[in-house]
Give the backbone structure.
Amino acid sequence: MKIVVLDGYAENPGDLTWSALENLGNLMVYDRTEETKIVERINDAEIVIVNKTKIDKRVLDACPEIRYIGVLATGYNNIDIEYAKERRILVANVPTYGTFAVGQFAIALLLEVCHRIGHHDRAVHEGRWTNNLDW
């Protein structure tokens, strides 16, 4: 089974492994894919993994082997869902993508509001603490 990741850098800039997908078939990972290269790269793939790359009717017509499109994000507005459904191509996203990161960021923002961490960080880096007569 041929598996192609079209814009892998968005999900894995080098700190993760694709080994789980490698175990499922012949995997090819591209960091980024220009629109003119999409069909060439996935022409006979059964599984296509994307983040932001558009998979529209033109691409689906040119790539008849596609059986599954995985979107490594919460949305799937970059996929022609209706046409994929007609072609019986399963499309899935990651509905809980980033849930923990969003929670962490919300807490970080609350701490910033309460403690003005950014202000104090700038003051230290600008030398306002070490050069202040009253510190």
In short: DSSP finds six helices and five strands in the chain. The radius of gyration is 22 Å. The chain has two domains: 2-92, 98-135.
